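User: Teach me something about this protein's shape.
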Amino acid sequence: MEELKVGIGAFWLYPQHHYHNEVEELKVGIGEWKIARPPQRLITLGLGSCVGIAFFDTRTSLGGLAHIMLPDSRQFQEITNRAKYADLAIPDMLEAMLKQGARRSSLVAKIAGGAQMFASADRRLLNLNIGQRNVEATVGVLKELGIPLLAQDTGGNYGRTMILDTGSGKVYIRAIGRPLKEI
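Assistant: First, the predicted structure itself:
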């Protein structure tokens, strides 16, 4: 099987490999994105206010998963990790997938996360609502790129784990105290 490179900001690294029941799991960390082919599975943990974006090409079975932290890079003067920001990570992951043979016309997206993790008496902190802003930015970038958003599991006040199975294109969400669900 061809080994795919993964993007962490502007850097390229080879993924760490984890095997679970004969399926290779590639872990996507905070502020990272990775692309994979069957039988690989992409998984990201700890989606609180962060948003996970899964891309899947229904023709080639190429998949991508990003774990973004912030909605917009334009408020920062120096960008050290492009994969942290919705406005940069999503187009970067798309471009890498297209270079690996994905077709824009057969790509679909699913998202998860964007929770309001902390209750606060301080109105200024509540008004930041980074989770909702991350969701809105992600949806906006997907619209700009013309990638259909098929499903989402966003909001609430709990963290999530997001899993993309490149063999089937299915996306699963796991959260503490909640059953595993497919979106």
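Now, about its shape. Residues 6-182 form a domain with the 60s Ribosomal Protein L30; Chain: A; fold (CATH 3.30.1330.200). Residues 1-19 have pLDDT under 50 and may be disordered. If you'd like, I can walk through any region in more detail.
User: That's plenty for now, thanks!
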